[in-house]
Amino acid sequence: MTTDPTELCANFWAYVSPVTGLVQRVAGRLYALTGTEEDRYAVLQALAPTDFAASLWTPVPESMVLDVEFIEEPLRGVVRADLLADPRVHEQVFRPVVDMLVEALPRQMRMVDGVPTEAVMPVPDTLLHVTTNVFEYDDGGVAVQVRRC
Fold this sequence. Notes:
Blueprint: E1 7-16, E2 22-33, H1 37-51, E3 56-59, E4 65-66, E5 75-76, E6 79-80, H2 87-103, E7 108-112, E8 115-119, E9 129-136, E10 142-148
Parallel strand pairs: 1-9
Antiparallel strand pairs: 1-2, 2-3, 2-6, 4-5, 7-8, 9-10
């Protein structure tokens, strides 16, 4: 019996101000999933609306700068939510999240030629992921917008 290999995949969340459309913090979670690409997407999409509540978050990197017409100094550590659809912007914003999650990956023990060897699951060059916008309202309410990347 052959099975699809287990691969790390991710859910990412951008916390969006419903008033401004700006993101100041992001979160993520890694999963070890098997199955076809469609199977893995289905799992990620099923978990995306709720798993943000148990995920590690970090501020948007200070390297992200937004010029605002009526403010003298540019805003640092913010990004417009609509810009996350651009793969380059997405990479810049979520790279610190991926790095944080990879650092937290548990070390596994595997037997290699009869010798216990420590191993960490590799992160694929192209990380299969789903990005979800989380809108937080002043009354404590939350709405999510899941999108496949």
